[in-house]
Design brief:
heterodimer, A: 110 residues, mainly beta, six-stranded mixed sheet, five-stranded antiparallel sheet, globular, B: mainly beta, 11 strands
């Protein structure tokens, strides 16, 4: 059974204070690792897919990286509008349906 | 472009009452469709998914059911709601045949069972 653990559960940053969110996973044959952003009361919004260890993806102030056991979402010089819950998910083996972690709630103070 | 619509956005139902949540997708054909539930403090739990009309797979045994009467329509139902059915219900779609797990979610339906 696929397992996804995200840490920390909550993170408070000052505007401009860079940091990283962690996603540890246990799967049998990784098909893909996904990052989503979820604003309060909204559905998750897809950000990135990473397929293999060593791969990196960037979007504005966000950069996702992948190793064989974990993924990091690096946030560089965050702004208040980056405040959201960030979800990590994995798909493995014969199933393309992602299993989600519980998310990291990020608050960026101005 | 593709869009997904989900309704109602919010509903409050008494225990034992029926439920019907509806989801439709526009701008694509034969999408894979999903129902997830997100409870407070928990992750997204997959409830049902469908790869075609009339084809429904259930992930969690419970008093909920799903139907796909048309290609781009997905309905979540219950005959008698329980308190534990409260939560945030999300419909999602992905491209047919695309096995990369990129899902596109609706705005969600918040259900409170009293």
């Amino acid at each position: 059974e696929d397992q996804v653990t995200q840490s920390p559960e909550a993170l408070r940053l000052q505007e401009g204070e860079s940091s990283s969110l962690n996603c540890s996973y246990t799967v049998s044959g990784l098909r893909g690792l996904f990052w989503y952003r979820q604003d309060p009361g909204k559905g998750p919004e897809f950000l990135f897919t990473l397929y293999s260890a060593g791969e990196e993806k960037e979007k504005e102030r966000l950069k996702a990286t992948l190793t064989k056991k974990e993924s990091f979402l690096h946030i560089t010089a965050p702004k208040p509008e980056d405040s959201a819950t960030y979800l990590c998910a994995v798909a493995s083996g014969g199933s393309y349906i992602p299993t989600f972690g519980r998310g990291t709630s990020l608050i960026v103070h101005p | 472009s593709q869009t997904i619509h989900q309704w109602p956005a919010t509903l409050v139902q008494p225990v034992g009452s029926p439920l019907s949540l509806e989801c439709t997708v526009e701008g694509t054909s034969n999408p894979n469709l999903y129902w997830y539930r997100q409870a407070a403090g928990r992750g997204l739990q997959l409830l049902f998914y469908s790869v075609g009309i009339g084809q429904i797979s259930s992930e969690v045994p419970q008093n909920l059911s799903a139907s796909r009467p048309q290609d781009r329509q997905f309905i979540l139902s219950s005959k008698k709601l329980l308190l534990s059915d409260s939560g945030f219900y999300l419909c999602a779609w992905s491209e047919w045949g695309r096995t990369t797990g990129e899902l596109f979610f609706g705005e969600g339906s918040r259900l409170t069972v009293l």
